[in-house]
Amino acid sequence: MSIVTRFAPSPTGFLHIGGARTALFSYLYARRRGGRFLLRIEDTDRERSTQSAVDAIFEGMAWLGLKSDFEIVYQTQRFDRYREVIAQMLEAGTAYHCYASKEELDALRAQQQANREKPRYDGRWRPEPGKTLPAPPDGVKPVVRFRNPVDGDVVIDDLIKGRITVANRELDDLIIARADGTPTYNFCVVVDDLDMGISHVIRGDDHVNNTPRQMNIFRALGAEPPAYAHVSMILGGDGAKLSKRHGALGVMEYRAMGFLPEAMLNYLVRLGWSHGDQELFTREEMERYFDFDHVSSAPARFDMEKAYWVNHQYLKTADLAVVEPEFDWHLRRMNLDPAAGPALSEVILAQRERCRTLLEMAEKSAFLYSEIESYNEKDASKHLTIAAADILKALIERLGALPVWDAEAIHGAVHGVAEMHGVGLGKVAQPIRVAVAGMAVSPPIDETLRLLGRDRTIMRLGAALNHIGLRA
Ligand SMILES: Nc1ncnc2c1ncn2[C@@H]1O[C@H](COP(=O)(O)OP(=O)(O)OP(=O)(O)O)[C@@H](O)[C@H]1O
């Protein structure tokens, strides 16, 4: 059997991490089994679907590197096909017209509720052998209902949740086309999954209730349903399902917070899946090991601290070629020109031990790509003091006279000044940091100055001296 999986979001908002993890599981399963992965945009709800949401989904998927192996499918481009299948089902008797008005159905529901029965359609327009249907009322456009089997059970052998059995008598005859002819959600999904040869439907378990109905429609169309895997929900801090309208942040907001896409994938894959006690996975490892046997059916909670930890592990070890473009993106986002300072790879190497996110790294490296506009007030009043003025003067002299500008030479000069003034290294390094970075934190001082370059260093030490002079 050829394996085809799909991710089918509705474009009613951004791609959030709940959807992204479901997409990832679907993608990984296809990769693991040598299959293909499809992205389908379920945009039939025209009032809520927007182009900007479609773009946001593409953006999120592209950033995470979850690429569709097929051309992207839009349900709104398939209405002719849905109409065709509805006509076939009416012809075959697996669907029928229902003329019941809204008032009639409301009255039916009220009566059922009064009798403490489960509200359900009573099959009044369902053709049965020997049953005479009333004449269709004039001027009423009918809906089309699916003729759900009445006997037997639907059995879902869910790859994550195990066996789920639902009696057909619990399922009523679903509307598959509204009175205006537009097809409904569950029906479109089946036609699509069938036409697209989906072998495994991997989706959130908020869809479990749809599955028996969809399986029945598959069978009515003469096909065997695909395999199903219902992935647990990611919940927010309040215990409710994360959704576009409730509590979720878009995937791209994690980019803005400084996450690496690979780290995000790693964090998401571990949210509900395990492989021994391994925590960190390369993309190749995820693709090699992922399976449903070790996916938990319990809901998962997003743990920001753990996500930061994973990101930091990645930042510390990832290929520079992976980190550089993201770092570049952050610098530009802060209106900094990555070409106006040292090579990004060198800065990443200098900063990555101490930064958990790329945003932090960009903020702590901004001084290398732009002039500093002001000093951190607290740091300046502590370190840019009259006592520091002589130290800064001596540094300007020594650093200006160095024959080469490398870490070793800088280190020697800084230590020399500390010795000359009979002070500890901190008394020299901290004023330098505030002078060149605007704040008292930076990578080791020799590395910081090497990256900044001699001219900028000397200029900034001079500006700090002026600052002390002005305050004196
Ligand atoms: N919190 C969640 N955790 C895990 N999977 C989710 C979560 N929310 C949605 N999904 C899954 O993501 C896929 C796309 O869902 P969809 O686009 O309908 O998102 P949604 O956030 O549920 O939408 P809405 O905000 O309209 O409820 C579906 O398979 C759905 O089950």
UniProtKB/TrEMBL annotation:
Catalytic activity of the protein: tRNA(Glu) + L-glutamate + ATP = L-glutamyl-tRNA(Glu) + AMP + diphosphate
Region (Disordered): 111-141
A matching Pfam family: tRNA-synt_1c
Subcellular location: Cytoplasm
Source superkingdom: Bacteria
Keyword Calcium: no
PANTHER family on file: GLUTAMATE--TRNA LIGASE, GLUTAMATE--TRNA LIGASE, MITOCHONDRIAL-RELATED
UniProt name for this protein: Glutamate--tRNA ligase
Organism: Banduia mediterranea
